[in-house]
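Hi both,

Apologies for the delay on this - the queue was longer than expected. I finally got the LZCNNONV-bound model through. Below you'll find the protein sequence and the ligand SMILES exactly as submitted, and right after that the structure tokens for the full complex including the ligand.
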Amino acid sequence: MAEQLVVIGKNEVEEFLHYKDLIPRLEVALGEFSKPDREDIQPVRCTVPLQRYNGFLGLMPAYLAHEDFLCTKMVCFYKRESGSNLPSTRATVLLIDPEYGNVNAVMDGDVITAKRTAAVSAISAKLLMPAKSEVFTILGSGHQALSHYNVFTETFSFKQVRVWSWRRESSERFAQAALGPVTVCESVEEAVNGADVIVTATRATEPVLFGQWVKPGAHVAAVGACRPDWRELDDVLMSKAEVYVDSREGAAAESGEVILSGAKVFAELGEVLNGTRPAQREKTTVFKSLGMGIQDAVAAKLVFEQWKRHH
Ligand SMILES: NC(=O)C1=CN([C@@H]2O[C@H](COP(=O)(O)OP(=O)(O)OC[C@H]3O[C@@H](n4cnc5c(N)ncnc54)[C@H](O)[C@@H]3O)[C@@H](O)[C@H]2O)C=CC1
Ligand SMILES: O=C(O)C1=NCCCC1
């Protein structure tokens, strides 16, 4: 039965969640998820539209059966005006005692969302990017762009990192905040020209990245466009690439890139990790990320373990 309910804020989540611990645990969880006899439970995200506020609430429960760990994330996403300083994603995670049903902890979910999403994209790149990848481009300059910059530069060695964003001032702010040199680009075409690895982390609802600009063999981790009628990538890119996803079920229900282009999903990342589908590193690849409750559960469990060690 429960101990006391604890509240774990953003700073503590930041302090306790490190990519070096998170990435291997996510790899295990993604692999488990993609096994035909999986025991972990994660329904497709339930969404409540908030039309008045141009957003939605997403509910993302997950049960890690092997670890008897139950939680749910509640995440609101808003399509903010381009000049707005308000965050577009706000998330909270509740840890629930699976036996008794009481809440054990309430945790900030913003850092969890930023880090686990970037960590999963880094796993996709580890598996799918060209063997000799030198140029890394990020489209977008918000929260996901920064977490992706952090984990990609921590995990890989690129010769050049580029950023493009809607507003040049935002790209410049991003470049100043980054820990290493970042080239600010004027256009998407300039930013992705010759790039080996591209992350799209924008709030775009129409394509911003066009296949004709993407170098054959490049790897694209597409993080935005999380509704069935939203896009960041055009049909040319979706048809020329081998498409990998986090969850086939999630992609079929929520990904505008997959649904509207009619592209076939080649594999889940977990299938590649399990060795049941190949990593086609020599081809142009797209990893379409939508986010999964089990990813939040893995991150929240790590945070809670660390929190208990420190209290
Ligand atoms: N796949 C996943 O697991 C997750 C995906 N997301 C998605 O990632 C994307 C980025 O999220 P955050 O970084 O938190 O948002 P943010 O609001 O911090 O940053 C968004 C960026 O997109 C740019 N932008 C806005 N409208 C645009 C447009 N029409 N065309 C091009 N760029 C535009 C902004 O200038 C900003 O640089 C969102 O689409 C969000 O839904 C967020 C969390 C998890
Ligand atoms: O997985 C998540 O968390 C989110 N995915 C899409 C946009 C909102 C947050």
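Main takeaway for now: The chain has a mean pLDDT of 97.

I'll put the files on the shared drive as well.

H.
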